[in-house]
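Q: Got a minute? One more chain.
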Amino acid sequence: GDFAIALTASSTPEAILFGMPNQGGGAGGAPDSAKYVVSEAHASLSAELIIPRMAGHPDTPASSPNTEDDEFPGSSLDVKWTQDGTPTITVTKSHVLIENTTINGTTQIRGIRQTAPATPWTATCKFAIVPVISGVNNEWCMGMLLHDTISGRYEIYGMGMFSVNELRLGRVRQTSLTAFSSYATVGHVAAYKCMSGYLAITDDGTNLLYKLSIDGYMPLTTILSESRTTFLTNGPNRFGLGVYQFQAEAHLSVDWFRR
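A: Always. Here it is, folded:
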């Protein structure tokens, strides 16, 4: 929000009011500079105010982004993304919304993906999930997507509900977009049905490391780790964002995706 700084010169108080950027999310994060220039408050006062830098905020875009990075500006998906399945994609207000509202009694993965770089790499996203239906036998998982185009296999890593009515961190595997294989969950996260946070996957050339940070300031913690070819036979050569669902709608909102 806004705040005021009162400066005194020649015994005459002069107030300068200026706004600080909202750090709440997306590309409108913390400033890249610690210097703000305002109009002169008094002839003997400089127009430059040096304030503490807010660098390091997790939502601050990189000064030199990688080609895979996306802050989702504008109103359409960048051409570097390929859609998997038939998700409903909406790009607005520096977010992408990935939805699948088709419930037809089959397991489904829907999402967007792009070519992964040579290892090692780490991909990170800031996400929010809002499921519509939950309960036993209404399964879903939303977050990051991995794909091995040679074997055709997929993984979704993120937050979900897996045959129990509570939120868990987990990973779903399918041998195709519609053929379920298995899932693994990591403990009870919360009894709430919507959540936001930061997910990351690292492919170090040998193992896949699945990571989580609730607020972006806490270090990304490795939740799962295994060989990169345990399920994705040749290792992942595509990465991105996606949803898995069975008898439940899926709605995933992502502020940004970065490598």
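A: The chain has no helices and 18 strands.
Q: Perfect, thanks.
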